[in-house]
Structures are given as C-alpha cells and as structure tokens.
Structure prediction request, 333 residues.
Amino acid sequence: MLELIKVRKSYEGQPLLSDISLTVKAHETICLLGPSGSGKSTLLRIIAGLEAPEDGQVLWDGTDLAATPPHLRDFGLVFQDYALFPHLDVFSNIAFGLKMRNWGDAKIKARLAEVLELVNLLGFEKRRVADLSGGEQQRVALARALAPHPRLLMFDEPLGALDRALRANLLNELRAILRRTGVPAIYVTHDQEEAFTIADRILILHTGAIVCEGSPAEVIAHPGSAWTANFLGLGNAIEGIVGEKQKIKSGAGVFTLRCAHRHQKGDRVSLLVRPHESPREKNTIRGKVMDVLFQQDGFKVTLDNGLYLYLKDASKVGKRVEARVKVECLEND
Prediction:
C-alpha cells in the first residue's frame, strides 16, 4: 500500500503542495483531479522519486522511500507524450526496461506476448512506433509500463493528446485492464469525465491541497465547498444569510433548509442550488428566461437572476418559469 504523510513542496517561495496525505490501497485506482497548477503532476513526480518533497514522507507498506531511487521503486509511469523511442519498433520499446533488469530473451518474449494481448496489439511487434496512431502509441506506452509487473501504475494526463472519441474508447479499455490486472493506480487528470469513469476514489486538488475526497458518487453528493461545486459543474453556488426558522435569504429567493451545521442568525453561508427539476423538493427557483441551450437530454435554461436550470421542455426567451429544486448548504460540509 502507498501512503503519503503531510507532503509539502514549494516553487519560487510559494506553496505548491500543502500537507498532502493520502493512501492507495491494493487493487484501487485513485484519481487526482484538479485544474492546471493545482499540484497534481508535481505530486506524481514526488511519488515516482523524480522530485523530493521538502517535508513529509512517501511510504510503501510502511517503508520510507526517500532513499530509494526511481528505478528501484517498481512504479510504472505513463505520460501524455508517450515517451517512446521513435527509432525502435514496438517489441524493442517494450522490452527495453526488461533488458535493463537483465531478463532473459525467452522470459522477455513470453512477457511481451502477454502484455501485447492485454493492450490489443498482438502482431504489432515489428511495427515502428513512429508509424502508429496516437492511440496505438499510448497502448505501447501502457504495455511498457505493465511489462515488469509494477507494484503501482501512475498516469499523468495519458489521454490528453487524443481526440474525444478515441479518448473515450481507450479510457474504457484502460479501466478494464486495471480491473483485470489488479495493479493499484494513480491517475492524474483535469478532465472530470475521465476521473469519474476510471476512479474508485477521487481526490480533488485546489491550490496544493485536497479539498474533496470520496467515491465518484460521494463527491457528487457532497462537494463540500462552493469552489468544488463550481469546478464540477454541479449547479449554482450562491451565498445566503441565515434567518429564523431554518430560512436562508439569498439573491435568488428565500430557502428553507435542514442541515447539520451550527449556524447563527446572520451567518453568511454558501448554498448549492442543484439545476435539475425535483418535484418533491420544497424550494422553488423563479426567473425570466434569458437564454436556452439544447442539450442531449433536455434544455439548459439561464435565468435573469444568473441561475440556470435543466428542463425537459424548451422555454422561450422572455418567458417566466419556475421549478422546484434541491438546495443544499455547503458551509462546513
């Protein structure tokens, strides 16, 4: 099991990672999700041993890896730019690391047959990687990372260079391969769709700190802050002021909420107004339609109060609409 304990790192005197603690369990895929500059790739490099933390520990099964160089950590890395040898064929690219480990020719050939079948590249052994498509090159990179039986796989934006359709197909295949092999993995991305497709557990990074953690369903249900709710596109994050009898006043109306937080009258709180209609909810959003955008399963309707809703039927610009929606308190969530 991989464990990080209060890892810190700064860049040009500014904090880049602040007290990062996390674990990766056996057979688990975690995703580090966040915008550019949030510290995701730096954290991955620290785990790989390519950078040293200024403070904190990186442990494997309780053993500190500080003195272990990258090539002895037995971690596989897959990058966005593939990092392949363009002058070598597929076989030689995958076999390179195994030869460095002094594997025999027969053992290398047997292992390559296994990983090439796993990534659906049997028969490509003699192809030059420069002649392969982007998706095929990334499969070669994955096969190379899998070949030496790594105890951990790490992916740094591995699908960023691929078009949308190819990215979706390869992502599903990668998810199946990780399930089949059982190798624990850390997947770094800024793409939410990738994160929610592949991860058992998601850790959202913002300005060098983990601001939300949980399964994909837990992260959606409990974003924990207005920033996270906005980043994930979960709805309308607004502010309100606590009144009497569980009433919260906001620029979008007065809402009745039940939450476990200890609020005082006059406290300013963050609210999440979920955009989907929920007829059983008590709170209602009203406004004049300013814009209507067709989407696959309905219409995104923007109102004059700045909020947006997802409605099944189209509404004309200028028309007044109302919808019952779920409103949640994000304060201390």
